[in-house]
Specification:
CATH topology of the largest domain: TIM Barrel
CATH superfamily of the largest domain: Aldolase class I
CATH architecture of the largest domain: Alpha-Beta Barrel
Number of helices: 19
Distance between the termini: 26 Å
Length: 463
């Protein structure tokens, strides 16, 4: 039940948390994990603004009190650039709905595999259609960590902080300033890992690779400058770049070198002491969500693992950064995932498969799924192309059903959510093993030094 006011919320945490102007002390960790945190997330997502603000601050400070610290993965990726480790791919998971439960499943799989190298992320577009602003998303990830007993750094990432090519062409300044506003909101919300996606403005009609990539690397340097000026004291946000738009032309070593040469030179103009990107996203043949066939199944992908291996090697040997990132991978066949650590892929982004698992779970109430599909037919009809089958339409649009049904999903019976969590945990466990991302806790703790960033309490919360 959502608390009607802040006073009611504060009574609920009495005896479990000691709330002061300087932060939160967890008095009864067992009660927090077993009961209170489940109630706080309802307030944090569904309450009135004052209640949301209070619950989110309490969860943030409670996490810090328990040693759960939103962190940058910069140190780990710098270590990879120096060949301090190899043969591991970090999973980055986009969570579009049932976020608290999906995050719990991911944390549980991480703990089961003694792995601390995994990332919670959400893209600019997903923030919109899932109704999850950065502060809310971070809150749910931290709450999941509290619930499952995680300790240490936790990595939360702004995926595809993207410049829209059409909007940029129409109004460059407005599009850039809009993205900076989002990035600032993400950093203030605890996203200390930001993927800049300006690959949308690459112009392949230009005669040389340098000219094709110019606007891409110039904007990336400008956004890096903005991030460095916005990051909290003591935190070096991990910044990612991108040279190939997902679903478009496959990336080449020439494009990568052109980007890096121009980017590093431009970044030096802003400040020669700035750290640049820690990784590079490239295109290898995938498409976000996969390509659904007429029956709703996903078409096979001819993924260019050679590009991942070749450009990743250049990244480490010539520029000392962690390596390359693969997007749009969750719908690949199971037998493909071991190839990522074998080709030294630094990070892989996964999203659609987990969304599909929720929708297709035998544990999701049929009447709720039917309501969500009915909503899609009524509100996403414009997304339906003339040649789409019913299966293709549902597959392509159902990602937009999570936001409008957030409350219904969050308040499903615990037994239902637990059953779905178990299904997801098994999938995450499989991925940790296939990506060779097991027994990484010691490695992460060696190279990542968390910085606890405390926040001031909402006005009037603490007297």
């Amino acid at each position: 039940m959502v608390d009607q006011n802040v006073e009611s919320l504060m009574k609920k945490v009495g005896g479990v948390l000691k709330v002061t102007k300087s932060g939160v002390e967890v008095v009864d960790a067992k009660a927090l994990r077993e009961r209170v945190i489940d109630e706080l997330i309802i307030d944090a997502c569904l309450g009135e603004k004052s209640v949301q603000d209070a619950a989110r601050w309490i969860i943030w400070e409670s996490a810090l009190s328990l040693g759960i610290v939103p962190s940058s993965i910069q140190g780990l990726y710098e270590a990879r650039g120096k060949n301090a480790y190899s043969g591991m791919t970090v999973p980055a998971v986009n969570i579009r709905g049932l976020t608290y439960d999906v995050a719990r499943a991911l944390v549980r799989a991480g703990l089961k595999n003694n792995s601390a190298a995994f990332i919670f992320e959400i893209a600019k577009s997903e923030i919109g259609y899932t109704f999850q602003r950065p502060a809310e998303y971070t809150t749910l990830c931290l709450a999941a960590a509290i619930k499952e007993g995680l300790k240490g750094p936790i990595f939360i990432q702004g995926d595809h902080c993207q410049v829209g090519s059409k909007k940029y062409a129409a109004s460059p300044k407005e599009e850039v300033e809009g993205l900076k506003k989002l990035i600032k909101e993400e950093i203030e919300g605890g996203f200390y890992n930001i993927d800049i996606d300006t690959s949308t403005v690459v112009d392949l009609s230009k005669p040389t690779v340098d000219e094709q990539q110019r606007l891409n690397f110039e904007l990336a340097a400008e956004f890096t400058d903005f991030i460095r000026k916005s990051e909290p004291k003591g935190v070096t946000v991990s910044v990612g770049g991108e040279i190939g738009e997902v679903g478009k032309k496959n990336s080449t070593p020439e494009e990568y070198r052109a980007y890096m040469k121009g980017y590093l030179a431009k970044l030096k103009e802003y400040n020669p002491k700035y750290k640049g990107i820690s990784k590079m996203s490239i295109q290898t043949g995938t498409t976000h969500g996969g390509v659904p066939l007429a029956d709703g199944k996903v078409a096979a992908v001819n993924l260019d693992f050679g590009a991942l291996e070749t450009i990743g090697k250049i990244a480490r040997e010539e520029y000392g950064i962690g390596g390359v990132v693969q997007h749009g991978a969750s719908t690949l066949p199971a037998e493909a995932f071991h190839r990522f650590p074998e080709t030294e892929t630094l990070e892989v982004h996964l999203a659609t498969e987990f969304q599909n698992m929720i929708y297709e779970s035998k544990n999701l109430p049929r009447d709720l799924r039917d309501k969500m599909y009915k909503w899609l037919h009524e509100n996403s009809a414009a997304d339906r192309k003339p040649d789409m089958t019913e299966e293709q339409f549902i597959y392509k649009t159902r990602k937009k059903g999570f936001g409008p049904f957030k409350k219904e999903l969050m308040t499903l019976p615990e037994a239902t959510r637990q059953a779905i969590r178990n299904e997801l945990e098994a999938k995450f466990d499989f991925l940790f093993k296939k990506l060779a991302c097991v027994n990484t806790a010691e490695l992460v703790n060696k190279h990542v030094k968390p910085v606890a960033v405390h926040k001031a309490p909402p006005a009037g919360l603490v007297k």
